[in-house]
Amino acid sequence: MKYNFALFVAATFVGSVSMAAVTGTVNFGGAAPKAEVIKMSADPACAKANSVPVKKEDVVVNANKTLANVFVYVKEGVKKESVPAAPTTPVKLDQAGCRYTPHVVALRVGQPLQIINSDAVMHNVHSMSKQSNSFNMGMATKGQSIEKKMNKPEVMMKVKCDVHGWMTSFINVMEHPYFSITDNQGAFSVDGLPDGEYTFEAVHEKLGAKTAKAKVAGGVAKVDFAF
Predict the structure, then answer these.
(1) Does 44 map to a domain?
(2) Dihedral angle sign, alpha carbons of residues 215, 218, 219, 220
(3) Pairing of β 91-95 and β 208-216
């Protein structure tokens, strides 16, 4: 099957100091793949927790022919002196209805990741890290919460449950705050970029990654990606 997607980036500037709110949309071209229904019959508690069929989220094509769950970030061009300290507010990753929610998350190096078990079933949170961000934790109790901190930047680190093989999520860890994840309209926003030349990258768990350069200089920047 052939996949297409396009990324559109625009920069908006306020006042005499240019600080961009870079916004865009990730579009999908071609026939949308049929979402596969997850079979949870192996664990009756998981099947009972969902009143409607649950579908896989590996390729989510929105009604407006855009893609959800695409991680968009500045890959090159960020100056270290312009990077603020990492927030102390945790980013949350929940296990609810025997699914990870949200499917894709992003946070800063050193920022807490709060992993929650909202199910009355045993889960296991296993990160498949390539950058020393590994962890493997059992969570047996409903309401249980664990905090982890990632030590190194990493893009689309897969997390899985060894108990329920259909459960997957992806964690992105950045040294700077210039990143976003597309929503159910395929839209994203990267805020606070100062003037400069940047390389953006859009990464999808199944469709891969594309990069493009954009110059942020008090005007409008537009970048198209096509697959």
Answers:
(1) no
(2) positive
(3) unpaired
Q: pTM for this structure?
A: 0.91
CB 162 within 8 A of CB 180: no
How confident is the model over 58-73, as pLDDT tens digits? Answer: 999 999 999 999 999 9
Does residue 161 belong to any structural domain of this protein?
yes
Strands 91-95 vs 112-117: parallel, antiparallel or unpaired: parallel
Q: What does the angle CA 54 – CA 56 – CA 62 come to, to the nearest 5 degrees? A: 95
What string of DSSP letters covers 150-213? --S-EEEEEEE-SSSTT-EEEEEEESSS-EEE--TTSEEEEEEEESEEEEEEEEETTTEEEEEE
Residue 50 within a domain: no
Domain extent, residue 146, equals 84-175
Do 156 and 208 share a domain, yes or no? no
Instruction: Flag whether pLDDT at 119 surpasses 60.
Output: yes
CA distances from 208 to 31, 34, 70, 82, 227 (A): 18, 19, 10, 29, 10
Q: Is residue 51 domain-resident? A: no
